[in-house]
Amino acid sequence: EAQVTQNPRYLITVTGKKLTVTCSQNMNHEYMSWYRQDPGLGLRQIYYSMNVEVTDKGDVPEGYKVSRKEKRNFPLILESPSPNQTSLYFCASWRGGNTEAFFGQGTRLTVV
Amino acid sequence: DQQVKQNSPSLSVQEGRISILNCDYTNSMFDYFLWYKKYPAEGPTFLISISSIKDKNEDGRFTVFLNKSAKHLSLHIVPSQPGDSAVYFCAAPNTGNQFYFGTGTSLTVIP
């Protein structure tokens, strides 16, 4: 089954404690991306990747890092989380061109 | 700068009637548009798309209309069903393969 898998689904952490949210896709897609969803702001892109070792900033990259060492995986790293990073995060992948993106189930992150 | 805009945060419709969700965009280079549906606690799922060479695309109860001169697209759901209650996002990829999403419209279909 074609899917994008994120882990964990829910995470509560404390300010400053480094964390990683994993994302894996099994569709051999070139493109992957991370979004955060906040009330009234829709889905805002954090980082995206065009291929292995090729990443670029989206609209809200501050406080986040990513890596793309393998085609299937695109982890999101918060080196020093802060309460304003409390949000719902989605990973997505797509083939590129005029095709649809596939989303993971989401990760609800709370930073206290 | 919001390149894809949904100006209606919410919409309520009676079951069986038509739901019309609207979306505007500013980037004239967009040539492909998508609608996604999102239920609580789930990721967005693809619903329907349209290429800029068309002005209409239909899939069952769902039809998307595109007005390029007005930079406007709309999603029509006929007839609306309670299971259609969800948040709907319009989206467009740019030539750099970044997806831009609107802020979403929460549709409630009242039984």
Identify the notable features of this structure and list them briefly.
heterodimer, A: 112 residues, mainly beta, seven-stranded mixed β-sheet, four-stranded antiparallel β-sheet, 11 strands, 51% strand, globular, B: 111 residues, six-stranded mixed β-sheet, five-stranded antiparallel β-sheet, 55% strand
Give a concise summary:
The complex is a heterodimer of chains A (112) and B (111). Chain A contains no helices and 11 strands.
Structure in words:
The complex is a heterodimer of chains A (112) and B (111). Chain A has 112 residues and is an all-beta fold. In chain A, 0% of the residues lie in helices and 51% in strands. In chain A, the strands form two sheets. In chain A, strands 2, 4, 5, 6, 9, 10 and 11 form a seven-stranded mixed sheet that branches. Chain A has a four-stranded antiparallel sheet with strand order 1-3-8-7, with no helix packed on it. The radius of gyration of chain A is 13 Å and the shape is globular. Chain A starts with a strand and ends with a strand. The mean pLDDT of chain A is 95. Chain B is mainly beta and 111 residues long. Helix content of chain B is 0%, strand content 55%. In chain B, a hairpin with a 6-residue loop joins strand 4 and strand 5 (45-51). The interface between A and B is medium-sized, with 26 and 25 residues.
Structural class of chain A: mainly beta
E-strand count of chain B = 11
User: How does the helix and strand content of chain B classify structurally?
Assistant: mainly beta
Give the overall shape of chain B, derived from the CA principal axes: globular
Average of per-residue pLDDT values of chain B = 94
* Oligomeric organization of the protein chains: heterodimer
Distance between the termini of chain B: 38 Å
| Major sheet description of chain A | 7 strands, mixed
Shape type of chain A: globular
Radius of gyration of chain A: 13 Å
The two chains with the largest interface, and their residue counts, are: A-B, 26 and 25 residues
